Amino acid sequence: MLYPNYSFLSAARRLLASSAVAMLLLGNSHAYAQSKASPSKTANALSSITERDIKRDLFALAGDHFRGREGGTLDELKASVWIAEQMRAMGIQPAGDDGTYFQFFHIQRTRITETSRLNIGNHQLTHGQDAFILAPAIASVDAPLVFVGKGTPEEVAKVDVKGKAVALEFSGTPPAELSYRRFLFGTMTRRAADLIKAGALAVVWVSDKEAQFYFERWTTGLERGRYDLPGGPNTRVFSQAPTVWLPASALDWIKQPGQQFTNVVNVESFNYPSVNIVGKVPGTDPKLKNEYVLISTHQDHDGVRRAVAGDSIWNGADDNATGCAAALAIGRAFVQKPGKRSALIVFHGAEERGLLGSRYYSANPTVPRESIVAVLNGEMMGRNAPDSAALLGSQPPHMNSLDLVNSAMAANQGLTKFKLDTLWDRPDHPEGWYFRSDHLPYARLNIPAICFTSLLHPDYHTPKDEPERIDIPKLTNMTRWMYLTGWDIANRPTRPALVKDFKLER
Questions:
Q1: What are the helix (H) ranges across 131-208?
Q2: Which residues contact 109 (CB under 8 A, 6 or more apart)?
Q3: Distance (Å) of CA 148 to CA 123, 191, 331
Q4: Which element (helix H / strand E) includes 14?
Q5: Which 3 state secondary structure label does DSSP give 177?
Q6: What confidence category does residue 42 fall into, taking pLDDT thresholds of 50, 70 and 90?
Q7: For residue 68, which of 43, 261, 303, 444 is within the disulfide window of CB 3.0 to 4.6 Å?
Q8: In angstroms, rounded to a whole number, what is the distance separating the alpha carbons of residues 468 and 186?
Q9: Domains of the chain, residue spans
């Protein structure tokens, strides 16, 4: 459940009034004393990164207590307070707004109201349960329904679709350059637009066997609507002919002739607060301490949703409690042995809503933007083969700093020796993975940025993404790789150079 802005803020104020949170906001000057000694060229705190600490933090953050940490909810705020308390306890200084660990920002949600109605023949359907409307747009349609099979040009040519609601069964095989998920949503959107252009007043898709898998797994996002920063493109409310998605079980009755399609869609919009958590470990060099190596991750996941196999809490252990446990461990290592440059640890809120926290922080950083010399982002770091990983931003057109990439490659070759999958960083990879994590807004601002990841797996965005499934030794090695890269950048005499004329493909 998401909370309307007024109730969320009221509860947030009560939570932030507690003495524990007051300590976070006020800080403790004794906890922030840093070593004055400059580290040698070889000294680091790699040994402080332990499986025990990482497992403890992972299980705490990905446990049911935080209810999946959905962006824009009290659960995300509670998890954020817990993270800030860990940073305070280990001696990381607050670097958010007003001397706190927190940078609050608003996210705007646009959704279909509960008063909206959808009827097909004698079937009364509810958005978010047995039918899904693809876009939260205002609509009012009362029209005859026609079924056009699989919607081939020959089948559509036999039917006058003008002034009708058109139903069709999804079918097709994606080309090699597209994942099925992207093919599915792209095809439904494109072909619906063609039918509406031909005069259809609404389009109804019925899942085939393969599309049904995605109907069951991915429609929780459609149920919630769209999210954006206030004023962003996803906040716009407009009128649009509805596109409806039904389960495969509807195929038998949707074919019946003489049915009427009646759909009244109303849209509402809410603002919710989300939060970035920001801490720093000051550097030891009198000049370089004014520059920052930004360790990036995100603390939110999907929250409480429709139960799958009896489990309704989508805990997001790999996505992205692994990145959070890694960032805490890296912060702990920098406290033990600070680098010449300062370390800036940023947990971004509402990443799952469209990289909202990183978009906000990169536009409104709590340190001078030009002082950020590199961004090292941790995203899903604890699954798949023990010796495999990937580095996003390591090859053109995604690579914006060869210096930064070489540092990461050297750290991997010297210690962790992961076999690096380069396919997922290619511009033609069907998942477009480079564009789906918090390094992206920084790269768009020409800040050197890379992402450490162990890539997707079958439990991605399902309730099965549990802490028990995480490979703790692998996560520890991923963390060490990320830390050694950050340590090198923090101590090298010059900041990583940008690739000349860097430009992303989209």
A1: 153-157, 180-197
A2: 2, 72, 224, 225, 226, 227, 269, 270, 271, 272
A3: 19, 13, 59
A4: helix 5-16
A5: coil
A6: low
A7: 303
A8: 35
A9: 33-109+271-491, 114-265
* Non-local CB neighbours of 386 within 8 Å, separated by 6+ positions: 471, 473, 474
Q: Kindly calculate the radius of gyration of the chain based on its CA atoms and give it in whole angstroms.
A: 24
CA distances from 371 to 13, 57, 201, 404 (A): 33, 30, 53, 16
pLDDT tens, position by position, 182-194: 899 999 999 999 9
List C-alpha distances in Å: 130 to 109, 136, 202, 224.
22, 16, 17, 14
Tell me: the pLDDT tens digits for 334-356?
A: 999 999 999 999 999 999 999 99
53 exposure class (CB count in 10 Å sphere: 0-12, 13-18, 19+)? middle
Which percentage of the chain shows pLDDT scores above 70? 92
Fold classified for 114-265? Glucose Oxidase; domain 1 (3.50.30)
Angstrom distance (rounded) from CA 411 to CA 424: 20
Nearest by Cα to 167 from 142, 146, 196: 146
Count CB atoms within 10 A of the CB of residue 304: 17
Architecture of the CATH domain 33-109+271-491:
3-Layer(aba) Sandwich (3.40)
Q: Which of 29, 103, 59 is nearest to 328 (CA)?
A: 59
CA distance 285 to 292: 12
State residue 218 phi and psi, 5-degree precision.
Answer: -110, -5
Q: With a threshold of 0.85, does the pTM exceed it?
A: yes
Residue 483: name the closest of 437, 395, 414, 399 by CA: 414
What's the pLDDT score for residue 176?
76
Query: Strand 202-206 vs strand 243-246: parallel, antiparallel, or unpaired?
Result: parallel
Which one, of 485, 93, 490, 505, lies nearest residue 326 by Cα? 485
